[in-house]
Write a structure and sequence with these properties.
Elements lengths: L1 H18 L6 H12 L5 E8 L4 E8 L5 H19 L6 E2 L2 E2 L1 H8 L5 E4 L2 H9 L3 E5 L5 E4 L29 H12 L4 E8 L5 E8 L5 H12 L9 H8 L11 E3 L2 H8 L4 E5 L5 E4 L3 H4 L4 H4 L2 H30 L7 H10 L7 H21 L5 H18 L5 H14 L5 H21 L1 H17 L1 E2 L2 E2 L41
Antiparallel strand pairs: 1-2, 2-6, 3-4, 5-7, 6-7, 8-9, 9-11, 10-12, 11-12, 13-14
Amino acid sequence: MKQHENKENNTWNAAQASLEPFTGNFALDLERVRKEIGHNSDVHFREFQIGGTGICAAIIFVDGLSDKELIDKHIMKSLMMSFSENHHQEPSIVQGAVSKEYIKNQVLTIGEVTEARHAKELASKILTGSTALLMDGVQNALILGRTKGKSRNMEEPSSEPLVRGPRLGFTESLRDNTALLRQQGGNSNLSILKFQVGERSKKELVIAYMKDLADPALVEEVRERIKKINIDDVPESGYVEQLIEDNYLSPFPQVQNTERPDRVYSALMEGRVAILLDGTPFALIVPVSLSMMLHSPEDYYDRWIPSFLIRLLRYFAAIISLFGPSLYISFVSFHQGLIPTKLALSIMGTREGVPFPAIIEALIMEVSIEILREGGLRLPRPIGPAMGIVGGLVIGEAAVQAGIISPIMVIVVALTAISSFAVPQYSAGISFRMLRFVAMFFAAVYGLYGVVLFFLFLCSHLVRLKSFGVPFITPVVPYRVSDWKDLMIRMPLVKMRRFRKAIQKKDSMRKG
């Protein structure tokens, strides 16, 4: 028992020591840093003397994350050679201690220099790729340069392909992503605020907004929700999305995620706020509406007539994806009299010998399609698409030949699956797929009345749902006829002179 208490006391004392400020005593400060992160094999300690002064110093960095060219040319060379040549010309040494300000302002040829006050703070910077400099007689450690981690090249986002539009997508580097936003328009009103999230593993997070367009109350609300995130680690922006949404019980996402800088910039120009997290290419946009989930950036790059027709087709596909199987079940099981006679006879003929009711048929096929879809996503890319297509054809044909499924049901399920692919936002597509099963059960119990009842329940939920205080189905509720120019239709750009009124902005008129 005493050994256990002694172990806990030692751990507590070590933690307290790592939080004590640096003293300026080189040996003591270096020992504190070694106790904090010296056990890591990829952390390197390079001790040396500054020029010909005899003053001890040490460079601490992580192999593979820190920029070795920066260390060799701009730190080691400056301190060991350039300093030796020039230090006698300046009051750089006082009572055997080197001047920190002289080192920062006249010796180091590095753009970014910050300070760390204790070993705990210094360790977190080093382990995320920064280079640290400890010097005898200098109380605080210097953090030099920036992280040079491994990142992939910028390429077209695979989750949001376009026929026409910019081909660049976000990467896992936060600095690259903020630079992409800056490149979109060079707007001096683009404001970027930095935060840190995660209790044990710190990660950088930024929120971006247009200072002259975004509602200050909205920006403050986003800041407060970000500050309230209390979790050990935030590996992906999906964690942030779940922790800041208004209603976690809703099947609909209240935060939009995207890999496209042009989509994010367009949202910022509407007065919305973007959230970007280091380590993920997916940015978040708030607030959002249901119509945003069914819109694509390509709608604005083409002329308004084809964009208008394609958007109508997309809404129609979303309705089929949600209600297709349930309408089939209700007509076949309860309301055969509403089907034209010849079509009803054809459907009954194809169902002859099928041992299951329509709801069981639909469940078998829909679950099979969902399994194939999920399996195709997890397989290697060369195999996944082929497996999904061939698997669907083989299972459908085999089920029909075995007399388990009617051919008309295969057609309905295939049309529903194809329609779900037309939803441009993957997370919104998942919501429609989940609710499709609920609609099927309503149809199996109450028929067409059940479908109508499900639709009313769905409308009731959507009317009450909000995203950061903005109604989720705006501009339908609250009704604003002026905003319908960019809802199910897309009017010519010359007719859309005002921003949507749902997002309060300082300037409601578009320039030009």
